[in-house]
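Incident review: delayed structure delivery

Summary: a single-chain prediction request sat in the queue longer than the usual turnaround. Root cause was a stuck worker, restarted by the on-call engineer. No data loss occurred. The affected request and its eventual output are reproduced below so the record is complete for anyone auditing the incident later.

Affected input:
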Amino acid sequence: MGGNETGLATRYASAPGRLGATSTVLAFDFGEKFTGVAVGESSVGLAHPLGLIVAEKSAVRMEEAASLVAEWKPGFLVVGLPLSMDGTEHELTRRCRRFARQLEARFGLPVKLVDERLSSAAAKEALKAAGKGGRKHKLRTHQVSAQIILQSYFDDPGSS
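Output delivered after worker restart:
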């Protein structure tokens, strides 16, 4: 290919309205200091770890989220909802719900809450299996957790 030509996959993926209700989706694994972020495309149904927001203050966390929303232009957002193993809510659940409401209000995007029980444990296991376990790769756990949360949404969107 030469000149201004683009590959078929690039042209197809960027064509507006292709594949019906296709949409980029950002997912967040909310934490008081570290918030993992993942991205996926609803038409493909695959999630990928994207990054980590390091912020203890809500305003800083929201500014980082704003940068990601501006860059990725998602159709909706997914937020992992931390629950106790018996399904009851706790303080972090309430903070996470507040974060989800703030995202929805600020960006005018639908926010879907997804049960995130055991996502951190699954992320640690996945990283360990990939040879990326231990302290050296601890911060990757949050973004892989976000990936697992988003993938669980793609696999079963009716459960949120």
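Verification: Confidence is low (pLDDT under 50) at residues 1-20.
Action items: add queue-age alerting; document worker restart procedure.
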